[in-house]
Amino acid sequence: MTDTLHTPNNDAPTTYVPPGDRPEGHEFWERSPYDAADYGPVSDFATDFDHGSAAYNAKAPEVWKELRESGCPVAHSERYGGMWVPLTHDTVHDVAYDTENFTSRAVVVSTTRPGDLALPAPIGGAPPITSDPPFHNVARRILLPPFAPKQIEPWEDEIRALCHKLLDEMGEIVPGETVIDAAVQYAQNIPVNVIGRMLGFPAEDEDLFREFVHTTLERINDEPEARAAAFERLDNYILGQVQDHIDNPRDDLTGYLLEVEIEGNKLAPEHVSGSILLLLVAGIDTTWSAIGSAIWHLAQHPDDRQRLADDPEVMTFALEEFLRAYAPVTMARMVAKDVDFHGCPMKQDDWVLLPFPAANRDPHMFEDPDTFIIDREQNRHSAFGLGIHRCLGSNLARLELKVAIEEFVARFPHFELAGDVRWSVGQVRGPRVMPIRILETA
Amino acid sequence: MTHCSKKFPAALFIGSEGLYSPRMRVHLDAEKCQGHNRCYALAPEIFDVDDYGQAVLLIEDDVPSDLEDKARLAASNCPEYAITITD
Fold this sequence. Notes:
The complex is a heterodimer.
Chain A: E1 29-31, H1 56-69, E2 74-77, E3 83-86, H2 89-97, E4 102-103, E5 112-114, H3 135-143, H4 149-152, H5 156-168, E6 179-181, H6 183-187, H7 189-199, H8 206-218, H9 224-247, H10 253-259, E7 261-262, E8 265-266, H11 269-282, H12 285-300, H13 302-310, H14 315-325, E9 330-335, E10 339-341, E11 344-346, E12 351-355, H15 356-359, H16 394-411, E13 414-417, E14 422-423, E15 431-433, E16 435-440
Parallel strand pairs in A: 3-12
Antiparallel strand pairs in A: 1-5, 2-3, 4-9, 6-16, 7-8, 9-12, 10-11, 13-16, 14-15
Helix pairs in contact in A: 5-7, 5-16, 9-11, 12-16
Chain B: H1 2-7, E1 14-15, E2 18-19, E3 25-28, H2 38-42, E4 47-49, E5 55-57, H3 68-75, E6 83-86
């Protein structure tokens, strides 16, 4: 494999400076010129967009629709130090494909962003998601093989067994009475278990993984100091696991990252830990959200539950329609240099949100986009992104989503919402608390 | 294109090797493919994937008529527009 890799661009070396060795006045993370306390509730999403407002994810599809219909293809906000939000398929596509004007060095829009001592592009803090070309391709080709379809397919039986176990653990179900939390008791446990096993991390640390995901992706309005402390805790955990793999070598993804070579050289330590950071954080609440949203939809659409039961073959199309209509992931970029983008005067270091879920509901791209059509045949959705950063874990995510839905509806043919749903905060959209009343058991 | 071959008798088309009826061909732009694997899922008879999850076209010649619908389905679901069809 290594002979097909390109050499990293040696003209732009990346130097990792450990926290203790960083000179005064230079920061690994710098604060966005932003204080969450200065801003109240969002008054107008066109000019004051905030994906970190508690109300956003519950009503996001309505927000996108209203903005598009009011003739706003790109929203703006002063929050987070300046942020743009393309809302049509075309504008999202154009940012995703433009790696000259938009850099991936930071992909979570928050109160903090990479400072002048942060790992700069091309590597970035979590390669390859935070890498730009040409290094991006090197880092990506290392991780593509373990996540290729034929490597992922053999996980199906284990994922199915895990779903059975979670359903069994719900205990005695009295149809019409028992209320379960499908987000907490089911969806959130599936991807965390699988990625933990792939990385070779202790199963008892699953709560910790969820905490890491929560602090990095949901607590985006925390003070920079609090965010830095959370990242340090996560880094230290990963370094501990890497050391354990060095001391006790084993055949898992962490072991693979420690052994794989680029043209005869092992990966730099920060590359190993950065890629683990990516796999751990990106592989958990994303799929958890997709599973939760699918169950949320099915709880309200008995006709779709019935169709899945009567016509299992429809899953091929249903799976992609769940991904289109309830795409969980909004990515982000930073503006690399001043650019006029579709008439918007974007300035270097402005944030750009990349809401693929909004692109998936653009009426110019999809007929009747706000309707879930279980057998939609033409579906060029971008739930896994567009261009060179297509989600590395898409084959695993798709398999987990498919199996999780199949097993849930096989066990519980009919169910309904039984109370208020609490949605996530931030760039990953999905139910975090979702009471479901079971109406029928198999 | 199927509606062409229905519209005109096959014998109207005379190629270098004699009479033929025009058939569908699939083209895959490997530069555009980002490994979404939609084509492999929808039409595994026509597309495989390599060790990196990138699409590989299995049928470079005319697509058998019973696979034409699957080829169209794969083309119309590629998020990167990497698949085109000529009839």
